[in-house]
């Protein structure tokens, strides 16, 4: 049975071909539109048309500088070598050895001079070899007994001469006064240093120390030296 429609007038006959042709034309036009470039016909700044006045052109000045010649190296003349004649006699110096051997004589002890070194620094009483001797402690046998006697006699001297000043007592002042003094090389008392809570207490402590008698000075290696001694005195109201 033959179809009733005429294939020559079918609308969908070449639709696919027309679609691809149309798409191709659209893509071509889009590409041309994106790649289209325009240029200005005239340049606003035409560099090639600029001209420079010849009067403004100056020739570069060429300076010729003459550098000084480098210094000539100093060449020292070689030392002159003199050849000594062999006819001259040369006396050689003989050095006698001073090594000690069994024939060397030993000097006697009495002939050796010992230099006495003067000790100028103060030595604390606990470090000195022979402590100062308080009057009345001369008969003590050992050094330790002399030190104990020294401290006992100093305490006895403080108790004997202690006097509480009336003005200080009225003000109710009390406290401890730290005392340090030096027993000189001749046995006298000097360089008294005090530190206490009040000047009046320090003055009373200084008065007590000033009444200390002269002593036999301390000795270090058999030489009289300065010896420092420190003690506290406590002022307390009953």
UniProtKB/TrEMBL annotation:
CC annotations in GO: outer membrane-bounded periplasmic space; plasma membrane protein complex
SUPFAM superfamilies reported in the protein's UniProt record: TolA/TonB C-terminal domain
Subcellular location, principal: membrane
Ranges of residues in domain TonB C-terminal: 149-238
TM helices/strands, residue ranges: 16-34
UniProt KW keywords: Cell inner membrane, Cell membrane, Membrane, Protein transport, Transmembrane, Transmembrane helix, Transport
Keyword Cell membrane: yes
GO BP annotations, alphabetical order: protein transport; siderophore transport; transmembrane transport
An example molecular function term from Gene Ontology annotations: energy transducer activity
Topology within the bilayer: Single-pass membrane protein
Localization per Swiss-Prot or TrEMBL: Cell inner membrane
Pfam families from the UniProt entry: TonB_C
PROSITE patterns per UniProt: TONB_CTD
Gene3D superfamilies (alphabetical): 3.30.1150.10
Protein transport among keywords: yes
Protein family according to the UniProt entry: Belongs to the TonB family.
Cited PANTHER family: PROTEIN TONB (PTHR33446:SF2), PROTEIN TONB-RELATED (PTHR33446)
Name this polypeptide is given: Energy transducer TonB
Lineage of the species this protein comes from: Bacteria, Pseudomonadati, Bacteroidota, Flavobacteriia, Flavobacteriales
């Amino acid at each position: 049975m033959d179809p009733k429609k005429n294939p020559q007038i079918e609308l969908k006959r070449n639709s696919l071909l027309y679609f691809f042709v149309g798409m191709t034309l659209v893509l071509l036009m889009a590409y041309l539109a994106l790649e289209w470039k325009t240029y200005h016909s005239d340049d606003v700044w035409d560099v090639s048309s600029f001209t420079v006045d010849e009067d403004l052109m100056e020739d570069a000045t060429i300076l010729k500088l003459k550098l000084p010649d480098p210094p000539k190296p100093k060449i020292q003349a070689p030392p002159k070598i003199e050849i000594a004649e062999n006819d001259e006699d040369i006396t050689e110096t003989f050095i006698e050895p001073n090594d000690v051997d069994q024939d060397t004589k030993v000097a006697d002890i009495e002939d050796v001079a010992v230099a006495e070194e003067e000790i100028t620094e103060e030595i604390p009483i606990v470090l000195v070899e022979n402590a100062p001797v308080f009057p009345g402690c001369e008969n003590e046998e050992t050094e330790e007994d002399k030190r104990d006697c020294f401290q006992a006699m100093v305490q006895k001297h403080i108790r004997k001469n202690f006097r509480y000043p009336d003005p200080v007592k009225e003000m109710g002042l009390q406290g401890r006064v730290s005392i340090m003094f030096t027993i000189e090389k001749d046995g006298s008392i000097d360089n008294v240093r005090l530190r206490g809570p009040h000047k009046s207490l320090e003055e009373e402590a200084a008065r007590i120390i000033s009444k200390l008698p002269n002593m036999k000075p301390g000795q270090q290696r058999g030489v009289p030296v300065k010896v420092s001694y420190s003690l506290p005195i406590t002022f307390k109201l009953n």
